Amino acid sequence: MIDASETIMIGEDVMIGPGCYITDHDHGTEPSRLTRDQPLLGMALTIGSNVWIGANVTVLKGVTIGSNAVVGAGSVVTRDVPAGKTYAGNPARDLR
Hints:
By secondary structure, this protein is mainly beta. The protein contains no helices and 14 strands. The protein has strands at 2-3, 8-10, 15-16, 21-23, 25-27, 40-42, 45-47, 52-53, 58-59, 64-65, 70-71, 76-77, 86-89, 92-94. The strands form four sheets. A five-stranded mixed sheet has the order 3-8-11-13-14, with no helix packed on it. It has a four-stranded parallel sheet with strand order 1-4-9-12, with no helix packed on it. The N and C termini lie far apart (28 Å).
């Protein structure tokens, strides 16, 4: 699922496994507002070229996944993944 309210850019030759959730926003948590009235808080998300994103990965707002990177199945990507790196886990971290 790709859930965009701002900008999600995906390069060429990207493989995205089943059950992934890629989003460029989340919701505010202002105590003075009802949950349904919270604003969306968005930041652009970029996925480079020749990236492999395994099954059931979540990629959160503001993240850049560099070209030639791999994200292991079930990972939660909360920060940038440098080009050519393999990241996995929750939160996703460098495996090599």
